[in-house]
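Page 42, continued from yesterday. The earlier attempt failed because a stray header line got pasted into the input along with the sequence. Redoing it now with the clean sequence only.
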Amino acid sequence: MNARKSLFMARKLLRDLNANRRLEVNMDNPPGKLGYYYIKFEEKRSKLNRLIHSLDEEGIPLNTTYIDVTPPRLHYYPISIGQYGLALFHTWLATGDTAKREHFLRVANWFARNAREEKEQGVYWLTDVPKPEFGVTAPWKSAFVQGRGISILTRAWQLTGDDRYLHLATGALLPFTRDISEGGVSVDRAAGETFYEEYVAAAPTRVLDGHAFSLFGLLDYTRAVPDALHPAGHRLARRLFDEGIEGLVRQLPRFDLGFWLRFNRCDLPGYPQDDPCTIGYLRLVRRQLLVLHRVTGREELLHFARACERHDALPNILKMYRLKLRALKKLDRV
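This time it went through. Structure tokens are written below.
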């Protein structure tokens, strides 16, 4: 057993006991105007993302690599950058501090500068850090990143009126239409169970919270860009959102371990079939489901959110830790 990895994971699990216990959600969004995001992120890095190491000269976050990535290095992680950008936007909304507004726009400009655009593939971002547990070594696409980028760019467009942001946000919808085998970020569409991939690998990885965050980005587009202004973009985003909700409802029962939730449902050979999520993820997913229930009215989402609340009890937590340790050992993470 690797002592360094074991110590890292032990500290992570101890922190996890109180993770997301007081996480705030935004359940009420006025039509048309994008204000607070659905999860109210704060700028404080200890609450936002512990892997954020520092900010570069423009105020863009740099992440440390995860424990199983060697050699360790600082890197730009688009999911974290988008999360930090939304936290800045929240601070600006709460305080009116114009410096926070300008800092948020620097984050939006990072997404604009780093966007890749192709006629067939649309607009996308790549994450240049390996994910050993999923066998990913080359720069990879992510539906989570696509959704984060859309949430940042549509807010920047509403703030500035600069159509460059809208153009990129609209192009970022296209990868959702394609399967991972075609260079896109979706799986299971042919089965009527569309799922958006946080980690695009050689086979589906189906990370639950990543799918929900992807849906938040699509939802932001439908709210920010009315049908009358951009019918093709609005209708595509609405279709992709509706497909993703249907896929979520159909696949949710397969994430339930009876006492806890699976972190993902991964088809890669050798990946543990019962890899439970951490406590923080369970609480996060519960809140995501409550938001999506409020938006869609789908009672299945409320039912599952209530199941998450029942699961969050000490006997189940102890049982989860035993199962999680077996999964971590199989993945060579401890």
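Notes: The chain has a mean pLDDT of 92.
Reminder to self: strip header lines before submitting.
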